[in-house]
Amino acid sequence: MNIEHNLTIALTKGRILDETLPLLEAVGIVPTEPLDSSRKLIIRTSAPKIHLVVLRGADVPTYVRHGAADVGIAGKDMLLEFGGAGIYEPLDLGIARCRLMTAAPKGRAPRGHLRRVRVATKFLNVARAHYAKKGVHADIIKLYGSMELAPLMGLADEIVDIVDTGKTLAENGMEALEEIAQISSRLVVNKAAMRTRHSSVMALIEGLSSVLIARGATAGD
């Protein structure tokens, strides 16, 4: 890759990070120290002009939108929740695949008998838009973890959450209902950086695209 400009790449903690690092390594971007044990907030890489920051998923779009990071890797769920203003989304990396779904306790009566539905989720904007589209009045309750607990404790009728295998739902007597979106991780670029650092950003995009094609993945949104 021909990287002429300094680039800061914002990465998402957890599963996305684990699946991102091999892709970056394939294009010659390797952290100079282990990300899981380093106390540094900005990490140098084997590519001298590229630095990494590791953030919560919800923060990646914000850092990229405001130009604190030039490029980021975030789940589509975060992009749907926080919007795409100020961000280009040029590449679907095809990693960390899952589904964003509604779910409820098994055997619950159909939603149609309810005049209002209480919904627990951390995806407030996505949930509001989904239920409004369905013509359902939803009272949204913001939670950050253990969504399955909310219906079990009588806090909510349904949840909106990420579903991978569905095992956690099943173990807690719940079932997935409606799919809101297929989720995978995307490369996102600050719109100003696309102009001012165009050659370097495009080198990164093209390098990752070549890796995905070589691995049999489909590049593009």
Kindly state the percentage of residues in helix. 25-40%
According to CATH, the fold-level topology of the largest domain is: D-Maltodextrin-Binding Protein, domain 2
At CATH's second level, what is the architecture of the largest domain?
3-Layer(aba) Sandwich
**Terminal Cα span:** 22 Å
Q: How are the strands of the largest sheet arranged?
A: 2-3-1-4-11-5
Strand content: 25-35%
User: How many helices in DSSP terms?
Assistant: 8
Mean pLDDT across residues? 92
| Radius of gyration, in angstroms, nearest whole number | 19 Å
Which stretches are poorly predicted, pLDDT < 50 over at least 5 residues?
none
Globular, elongated, flat, extended or rod-shaped: what is the shape?
A: elongated
User: Major sheet: size, sense and barrel closure?
Assistant: 6 strands, mixed
The count of strands amounts to 11
Query: In the residues, how many domains can be counted?
Result: 2
Q: Classify the oligomer.
A: single chain
Walkthrough of the structure:
The model has no long low-confidence stretch (mean pLDDT 92). The chain has helices spanning 15-26, 60-65, 76-82, 124-134, 149-152, 167-171, 191-196, 198-214, and strands spanning 7-12, 43-44, 50-55, 71-75, 87-92, 98-105, 117-121, 138-142, 158-163, 174-183, 185-190. It is an alpha/beta fold and 221 residues long. A hairpin with a 5-residue loop joins β2 (43-44) and β3 (50-55). It is built from eight helices and eleven strands. It has two domains: 7-96 and 184-214, D-Maltodextrin-Binding Protein, domain 2; 98-182, D-Maltodextrin-Binding Protein, domain 2 (3-Layer(aba) Sandwich), CATH 3.40.190. It has a six-stranded mixed sheet with strand order 2-3-1-4-11-5.
